[in-house]
Amino acid sequence: MIDSSSCPAPGCCSTPMDFLACLCILQLLYLASSGVAAQAATSPARALDAMLQDYAYRAFVRPHTGIVYSATVPPNLTGVAVSAVRLRSGSLRRKGFAHFLEFAVPTGIVVQPYVERVVLVYHNLGNWSHYYYPLPGYTYLSPVLGLLVYDAANLSAVGLQELSIVASGSPISISFSNVRSVPADGPAPRCVWFDLDGVPQFRDLEASNVCSTFRQGHFAIVVNSSEIAPGPLPPGTITPPIPTQGVHSKGSSKGWKIAVGVVGGVIALVLSALLVVCLARYKRDRKLEVMERNAEAGETLRMAQVGRSQAPVALGTRTQPVIESEYVA
Ligand SMILES: *[C@@H]1O[C@H](CO)[C@@H](O)[C@H](O)[C@H]1NC(C)=O
Ligand SMILES: *[C@@H]1O[C@H](CO)[C@@H](O)[C@H](O)[C@H]1NC(C)=O
Ligand SMILES: *[C@@H]1O[C@H](CO)[C@@H](O)[C@H](O)[C@H]1NC(C)=O
Ligand SMILES: *[C@@H]1O[C@H](CO)[C@@H](O)[C@H](O)[C@H]1NC(C)=O
């Protein structure tokens, strides 16, 4: 860590000391802003994806292709279920995988970039759904289920990136098993799909408990809770499981982090510009200094013997004098 007392305020950078101070402060601010930016970049949901990929792969002890293995999750994630299956991508494309828990994967799945074998990882976030995927204004009627696809080349790999998949024919369908019911006169339940960036998109249900998708991500059935969340609930309606206070504070803390990241970035940018100016000024001042010193000492030209007298000679002669006879030979 840089001792901040050794960093005086950035002013005019005409001396090497000031120049160093500029560098010093710039580095301090850059470190601070990049730290915040890195924090803002990894959402809890993405950190969870990475953790669950690790636990899913640990379930593969001498794995058979096409067999679904369920993983063991750590005690601090009790309530989350994870399963995984390893498949050849050619077989996945030709045959699909019809019974991957709630997911029915049809034929025609294209995996990019191409790998020989893939691992499909299933998440059921259970009572953690609204913690990792807060959705203000909506109530979850089902847990959030995830389907993510990874390269199977190294089953001890950690921190893998998801592959990209597209259902080129019919969509992947998700048949939720325990969907809570809502009063018929209330708002209609909808499907929500979170892509890997956590951006929600809403779709209509295919059937009372079925959603469909052409891509991987996380899925759930939700209902607009703006009418049922406030006030006492009539008997028979579901209790909104979203602790709205937690959701709001989480959302705003995320926004706050991003805001700090952006401000930090702008500060870093301004300081970079300042550094460039400082550098230019420092170089110019050095040049002036050298020129002044030379002026004081008097321009000493190299003297050379020309014939019988001494004459000044410029250092960079344009054409070297040659004796003509050298050309001829
Ligand atoms: C759960 O514990 C593991 C270590 O066992 C830790 O890496 C992880 O961050 C914890 N997760 C949560 C959600 O607290
Ligand atoms: C989910 O339930 C388990 C126990 O079944 C509990 O340990 C955990 O804290 C719960 N998670 C949340 C987010 O409430
Ligand atoms: C929920 O429904 C209400 C009333 O129909 C509407 O005003 C509100 O925008 C909806 N909320 C969301 C998040 O779509
Ligand atoms: C597999 O991944 C682990 C963990 O990242 C790494 O240590 C190991 O070298 C990898 N093995 C191969 C064959 O790439």
Automatic annotation (TrEMBL):
Sorted UniProt keywords: Membrane, Signal, Transmembrane, Transmembrane helix
Record-linked InterPro entries: DUF1191
Signal peptide coordinates: 1-38
Lineage top rank: taxon: Eukaryota
Transmembrane segments: 258-282
A UniProt-annotated Pfam family: DUF1191
Coiled-coil parts of chain: none
GO cellular component, one term: membrane
Name of this chain's protein: Legume lectin domain-containing protein
Organism field: Oryza brachyantha
